[in-house]
Design brief:
The chain is α/β, with parallel strands linked by helices. The protein has one domain (4-201): Rossmann fold (3-Layer(aba) Sandwich). It contains 5 helices and 7 strands; from the N terminus they run αββαββαβααββ. A hairpin with a 4-residue loop joins β6 and β7 (195-201). It is globular. The termini are far apart.
Length: 204
Protein backbone atom coordinates (compact mmCIF):
# COMPACT_ATOMS: atom_id res chain seq x y z
CA UNK A 1 0.00 0.00 0.00
CA UNK A 2 1.42 3.35 -1.01
CA UNK A 3 -0.16 6.79 -0.93
CA UNK A 4 1.11 9.15 -3.63
CA UNK A 5 3.22 11.45 -1.41
CA UNK A 6 4.94 8.53 0.36
CA UNK A 7 5.75 6.80 -2.93
CA UNK A 8 7.05 10.06 -4.37
CA UNK A 9 9.27 10.53 -1.32
CA UNK A 10 10.71 7.02 -1.63
CA UNK A 11 11.45 7.55 -5.33
CA UNK A 12 13.14 10.89 -4.60
CA UNK A 13 15.28 9.26 -1.92
CA UNK A 14 16.61 6.46 -4.13
CA UNK A 15 19.65 8.38 -5.42
CA UNK A 16 20.55 9.38 -1.85
CA UNK A 17 20.11 5.84 -0.61
CA UNK A 18 22.56 4.75 -3.30
CA UNK A 19 24.93 7.44 -2.01
CA UNK A 20 25.74 5.20 1.00
CA UNK A 21 22.64 6.07 3.04
CA UNK A 22 21.43 2.46 3.02
CA UNK A 23 24.88 1.20 3.95
CA UNK A 24 25.09 3.65 6.85
CA UNK A 25 21.58 2.81 8.07
CA UNK A 26 22.55 -0.86 8.24
CA UNK A 27 25.80 -0.13 10.06
CA UNK A 28 24.20 2.23 12.56
CA UNK A 29 21.02 0.35 13.39
CA UNK A 30 22.70 -2.97 13.97
CA UNK A 31 23.60 -1.76 17.47
CA UNK A 32 20.01 -0.95 18.52
CA UNK A 33 18.88 -3.19 21.37
CA UNK A 34 16.41 -3.47 24.22
CA UNK A 35 13.37 -1.20 24.14
CA UNK A 36 13.79 0.93 21.02
CA UNK A 37 11.98 4.06 19.84
CA UNK A 38 12.33 5.44 16.32
CA UNK A 39 11.41 9.12 16.01
CA UNK A 40 10.28 10.45 12.63
CA UNK A 41 10.02 7.05 10.95
CA UNK A 42 8.62 8.52 7.73
CA UNK A 43 7.94 5.72 5.25
CA UNK A 44 9.80 3.09 7.30
CA UNK A 45 13.14 3.06 5.48
CA UNK A 46 14.95 1.90 8.63
CA UNK A 47 12.74 -1.10 9.37
CA UNK A 48 14.72 -3.67 7.31
CA UNK A 49 17.98 -2.76 9.04
CA UNK A 50 17.23 -3.51 12.69
CA UNK A 51 18.51 -6.75 14.20
CA UNK A 52 15.27 -7.85 15.80
CA UNK A 53 16.88 -10.65 17.78
CA UNK A 54 18.43 -7.91 19.94
CA UNK A 55 15.25 -5.84 20.29
CA UNK A 56 12.64 -6.41 23.00
CA UNK A 57 10.14 -4.11 21.31
CA UNK A 58 10.20 -1.32 18.73
CA UNK A 59 7.92 1.72 18.67
CA UNK A 60 7.99 3.93 15.59
CA UNK A 61 6.53 7.43 15.54
CA UNK A 62 5.92 10.19 13.06
CA UNK A 63 4.04 13.46 13.11
CA UNK A 64 1.62 11.82 10.63
CA UNK A 65 1.45 8.06 10.30
CA UNK A 66 0.78 7.25 6.65
CA UNK A 67 -0.45 3.93 5.21
CA UNK A 68 3.00 3.25 3.74
CA UNK A 69 4.54 3.13 7.22
CA UNK A 70 1.74 1.02 8.69
CA UNK A 71 2.07 -1.46 5.81
CA UNK A 72 5.85 -1.71 6.24
CA UNK A 73 5.50 -2.31 9.98
CA UNK A 74 3.04 -5.18 9.37
CA UNK A 75 5.22 -6.62 6.58
CA UNK A 76 8.36 -6.40 8.74
CA UNK A 77 6.70 -8.20 11.65
CA UNK A 78 5.52 -10.97 9.35
CA UNK A 79 8.86 -11.31 7.52
CA UNK A 80 10.82 -11.45 10.78
CA UNK A 81 8.37 -13.85 12.42
CA UNK A 82 7.71 -11.35 15.21
CA UNK A 83 4.73 -11.12 17.51
CA UNK A 84 2.97 -7.97 16.18
CA UNK A 85 2.86 -6.67 19.76
CA UNK A 86 6.63 -6.12 19.54
CA UNK A 87 6.16 -3.49 16.81
CA UNK A 88 3.97 -0.46 17.52
CA UNK A 89 3.16 2.69 15.56
CA UNK A 90 2.30 5.97 17.28
CA UNK A 91 1.45 9.36 15.82
CA UNK A 92 3.47 12.00 17.64
CA UNK A 93 5.77 14.94 16.87
CA UNK A 94 9.36 14.69 18.06
CA UNK A 95 8.83 17.76 20.24
CA UNK A 96 6.02 16.08 22.25
CA UNK A 97 6.67 12.37 22.68
CA UNK A 98 3.80 10.60 24.52
CA UNK A 99 6.04 8.38 26.65
CA UNK A 100 7.13 8.37 30.27
CA UNK A 101 10.59 9.49 31.34
CA UNK A 102 13.37 6.91 30.93
CA UNK A 103 11.19 4.53 28.87
CA UNK A 104 13.68 3.39 26.22
CA UNK A 105 17.15 1.89 26.01
CA UNK A 106 17.72 3.29 22.54
CA UNK A 107 16.24 6.05 20.37
CA UNK A 108 16.79 6.16 16.61
CA UNK A 109 16.53 9.30 14.48
CA UNK A 110 17.68 9.41 10.86
CA UNK A 111 17.17 12.53 8.73
CA UNK A 112 14.72 13.89 11.30
CA UNK A 113 16.22 16.86 13.13
CA UNK A 114 16.71 18.81 9.92
CA UNK A 115 12.93 19.14 9.75
CA UNK A 116 11.43 19.33 13.25
CA UNK A 117 10.09 22.82 13.94
CA UNK A 118 11.96 23.11 17.25
CA UNK A 119 15.12 21.02 17.08
CA UNK A 120 16.15 21.67 20.67
CA UNK A 121 12.74 20.71 22.02
CA UNK A 122 12.87 17.47 20.03
CA UNK A 123 16.34 16.58 21.25
CA UNK A 124 15.34 17.37 24.83
CA UNK A 125 12.40 14.99 24.46
CA UNK A 126 14.74 12.27 23.19
CA UNK A 127 16.93 12.76 26.25
CA UNK A 128 13.90 12.65 28.53
CA UNK A 129 12.57 9.32 27.25
CA UNK A 130 16.00 7.66 27.20
CA UNK A 131 17.04 5.65 30.22
CA UNK A 132 20.27 6.79 31.93
CA UNK A 133 23.07 5.20 29.96
CA UNK A 134 20.80 4.78 26.93
CA UNK A 135 21.85 5.90 23.47
CA UNK A 136 20.57 7.96 20.57
CA UNK A 137 21.57 6.54 17.19
CA UNK A 138 21.49 9.41 14.71
CA UNK A 139 22.13 10.16 11.06
CA UNK A 140 21.53 13.70 9.84
CA UNK A 141 22.48 16.03 7.04
CA UNK A 142 24.14 19.19 8.32
CA UNK A 143 25.64 22.43 7.11
CA UNK A 144 28.64 21.51 4.90
CA UNK A 145 32.02 22.22 6.50
CA UNK A 146 33.52 23.72 3.32
CA UNK A 147 32.87 27.48 2.84
CA UNK A 148 31.59 27.36 -0.75
CA UNK A 149 29.00 24.56 -0.27
CA UNK A 150 28.00 26.12 3.05
CA UNK A 151 27.20 29.42 1.33
CA UNK A 152 25.32 27.63 -1.44
CA UNK A 153 23.22 25.72 1.10
CA UNK A 154 22.45 28.99 2.91
CA UNK A 155 21.23 30.55 -0.35
CA UNK A 156 19.10 27.54 -1.26
CA UNK A 157 17.71 27.00 2.24
CA UNK A 158 14.61 29.28 2.13
CA UNK A 159 13.31 27.82 -1.15
CA UNK A 160 14.25 24.28 -0.15
CA UNK A 161 12.29 24.59 3.08
CA UNK A 162 9.15 25.51 1.15
CA UNK A 163 9.26 22.46 -1.13
CA UNK A 164 10.56 19.90 1.40
CA UNK A 165 8.19 20.23 4.32
CA UNK A 166 10.42 22.56 6.33
CA UNK A 167 13.73 20.72 5.93
CA UNK A 168 16.63 22.96 6.96
CA UNK A 169 19.93 22.61 5.08
CA UNK A 170 22.04 24.61 7.51
CA UNK A 171 21.43 23.22 10.99
CA UNK A 172 24.32 22.34 13.26
CA UNK A 173 22.79 19.22 14.77
CA UNK A 174 25.98 18.14 16.53
CA UNK A 175 25.98 21.37 18.53
CA UNK A 176 22.29 20.81 19.25
CA UNK A 177 23.05 17.36 20.63
CA UNK A 178 25.67 18.75 22.98
CA UNK A 179 23.30 21.48 24.12
CA UNK A 180 20.63 18.88 24.87
CA UNK A 181 23.00 16.85 27.05
CA UNK A 182 23.59 14.12 24.48
CA UNK A 183 27.27 14.52 23.56
CA UNK A 184 27.85 12.74 20.23
CA UNK A 185 30.43 10.06 19.64
CA UNK A 186 30.83 10.13 15.88
CA UNK A 187 31.13 7.16 13.59
CA UNK A 188 31.96 9.57 10.83
CA UNK A 189 30.75 11.68 7.95
CA UNK A 190 30.18 11.04 4.26
CA UNK A 191 29.21 12.84 1.04
CA UNK A 192 31.77 15.57 1.69
CA UNK A 193 30.66 16.10 5.28
CA UNK A 194 27.04 16.84 4.36
CA UNK A 195 25.92 13.76 6.31
CA UNK A 196 27.02 12.77 9.79
CA UNK A 197 26.08 9.75 11.85
CA UNK A 198 26.95 8.22 15.19
CA UNK A 199 25.96 7.53 18.79
CA UNK A 200 24.96 10.10 21.39
CA UNK A 201 24.75 8.54 24.88
CA UNK A 202 22.71 9.89 27.75
CA UNK A 203 24.96 10.06 30.83
CA UNK A 204 24.28 7.28 33.32
Amino acid sequence: MCDFSSCLFDVAMKPLEALRLTERRRQLLGSASGRVLEVGAGTGANLPHFRYEHIADLTVTDIEVRPRLQHRVRWTAAAAGLNPARLAVREAPAERLPFEDASFDCVVATLVFCTVSDQQAGLSEVRRVLKPGGTLLFMEHVRPPQPVPAKLFAVLNPAWGLVSGGCNLTRNTLAGLRQAGLPPRLYGTFAGGIFTYGIAPKPA
